[in-house]
Write a structure and sequence with these properties.
The chain is mainly alpha-helical. The protein has 5 helices and no strands. Helix 1 crosses helix 3 and helix 2 crosses helix 3. 39% of the residues are buried.
């Protein structure tokens, strides 16, 4: 199986994991690293399956947010994966939750060659790993935005 850490340099990985940790006071570094690795797997799965309607869990979304904040790292990652994976933030709304989306996303991660850390793929109501991220991505993307986090619209870099 492929390792998500190999998608970026060790220095970049620690930088992103440190951002996750800083954004979540009291979080252990190993938890931040697990979240970062799962976010990398998510982005890789999105690039490999751009029309599958993939969504991150609330916990993995925290890692995706941290990746995006490292713009150079994120742009290089997406270029390496062959597709820029867009993010459309939305306010929290548990009524938009599509339970099938998390299963579909975990399947896509496995199909992309990665092992899923199922403990990070809980529904938005699960707060067992407290994180600052509180998005729940809808499907399809909000009207008029032209693209969504699963790249079902134009591939705008």
């Amino acid at each position: 199986m492929a390792t998500a850490r190999s998608l970026i340099t060790p220095e970049e990985f620690i930088g992103v994991a440190s951002t996750v940790q800083r954004n979540n006071p009291g979080m252990a570094l190993d938890t931040a690293e697990e979240i970062t690795a799962e976010a990398l797997k998510f982005v890789a799965a999105c690039a490999a399956s751009p029309t599958s309607g993939l969504k991150p869990s609330r916990t993995v979304d925290e890692g995706w947010h941290a990746l995006i904040l490292h713009t150079v790292v994120y742009a290089r990652l997406c270029k390496r994966l062959g597709l820029f994976v867009h993010h459309v933030p939305e306010p929290p709304d548990v009524t938009r939750h599509d339970p099938g989306a998390l299963a579909r996303t975990m399947d896509a991660i496995t199909a992309a060659g990665y092992e899923v850390n199922a403990s990070l793929w809980k529904p938005p109501t699960d707060r067992s790993i407290p994180v600052a991220a509180d998005c729940e991505h809808s499907e399809p993307a909000p009207a008029g935005c032209g693209f969504d986090c699963s790249n079902t619209g134009p591939n705008v870099a």
